Amino acid sequence: MARSSDLDVAYIARLARINLTEAEAKVFQKQLDDVLNYVEKLRQADVSHVEAAAHTLPIFNVFREDAPGDCFTAEQALSNAPRQANGLFVVPKVVE
Amino acid sequence: MTEKDLPALTIADLQSVLRRGDVSPREVIDALRARIDAIDPEIGAYLSLDMEAATQQAEKSNVDLPLGGLPLAIKDIINVMGQPCTCGSKILSGYRAIYDATVIQKLRAAGAIPFGKTNLDEFAMGSSTENSAVKLTRNPWDLSRVPGGSSGGSAAAVAADAAFGALGSDTGGSIRQPAALSGVVGLKPTYGRVSRFGLVAFASSLDQIGPLTKTVRDAAMIMNAIAGHDPQDSTALNEPVPDYAARLGRDLRGVRLGLPKEYLIEGIDSQVKIAIDTAVKQMSSLGAEIIEVSLPTTEYAIAVYYIVATAEASTNLARFDGVRYGYRAENPKDMLDLYGRTREEGFGPEVKRRIILGTYVLSSGYYDAYYLQAQKVRELIRRDFASAFEKVDALVSPTSPVPAFRLGERVADPLQMYLADIFTIAANLAGICGISVPCGLAEVDGHRLPIGLQFLGKALDEARILQIAHAYEQSTDWHKARPLIAAVK
After folding, report:
1. Distance (Å, rounded) from C-alpha B8 to C-alpha B26?
2. What CA–CA distances, in Å, run from B393 to B188, B250, B256?
3. What are the tens digits of pLDDT across the range A28-56?
4. What ipTM goes with this model?
5. Which of B81, B122, B376, B419 is the best mutation test for A, with the most CBs of A within 10 A?
6. Which domains does chain B have, with CATH numbers?
7. Which residues of B are catalytic?
């Protein structure tokens, strides 16, 4: 398992699309290094004969009829939008 | 029965007076409103109330329905149409739900009235409700202490007689731990027993909705209404729902209770330990067989949780991007600036920490070492419980190693806050059910602080742990103890 110092908080925060101040990044670095040091103990567990568990219960694919049902109107879907116009979400220009 | 006495009633007793016609549902709403107005300025349990809609529903409610005319508080992470759903976060300030969660539809169909939304740690991430970006919630037993979390508003409201019952959500103990610290009953159902549709997702393989109530019977009555299959949630199990309330009343004779030896950890408060030992002796004298069991993977549970839960949270919370709903940073210069600043300004520190940790453990080069390893150890934890339940009907432990701690005492050290979840977290990882019931009062600095006893049951064995918890509860008076603040007002 990687050493906890491998975590570069500023870099990962950029991947997660969260701007951080330098001061905040520094505090998080220390706190998350502590957490990562703590989880190092998982290396001791013998998992050589174990399949990974994404779920704990025997849940399989669930199928249903592909039938149309009720859905939100455009007005409902837009009712919490921070900015909207002409029935659309408004965002900053993406393509120059 | 005066209006002033109404809020102290259990759901079962309120149902009786409603059905006898001693009071009307409208009078119940008025009495609850008066109680909340009097006491919630000191407790801070509620984030929003919709008493006008509640009054309208009360006027036409049918008290013969299973929960007819019963007002219930809802953790503010469950969508109730037309009401705010802030998740305790600035990023959802101003948001109004455009649909009812399945549990809310089911409660309405049973006649219940969802009238208000309760405070929580932001996106249910925390154990003290101090991570709410909106306000502080105080423990009704000692206003300088936390109510527990993340469903701290729901627990405090029920404890202070400012709600007859409430819904919470439990990802690593967020129903059971605040129930314990606030002196109420809290049930985390089996994963898949209750639909998650309309519950804002934190960690999708761990989250479950469940009740917080004054008694075990009340929890069973709410479970009767909310459990069951839902085509809107593919993980909601298609299994029959027993009548949980009707099955209460069996005694403890012949019940096999397991004491996990790994749960005798350092750091259990001495008064908590005495209360649990006393409860176990009492159950033994009532005919239960006490058996020592082993859960060898206990030491890994918190580590597994903080990898799995943060990984799932980092993907679930990617939807909060400032585009379709919620908060948006002002004057973004481009899309990346919009995302980065919206999430910087909209999320609090604990949510940011967990998103960053979750992003890291899923990132290329670290996925196998952290996430995959954690998923494998999770399977070992599940097997531990499965073999324990071959020998016993339920496991017994403290819900929390300590009674309610002081506001501000643990916020600076996230890891210490995480470690307090040792007794509750494994149940979520294993997908099993658990319940916390009051089992004593610690004396700390001149205040009485509630202690919680936890029973864990195997998957879909809610009826069993409700029976056991009910039998224990009825043999004590702990569930009748009320915080001083309840009497003062």
Report:
1. 17
2. 17, 14, 5
3. 999 999 999 999 999 999 999 888 766 66
4. 0.93
5. B376
6. 3-258+387-488 (3.90.1300.10)
7. 75, 150, 174
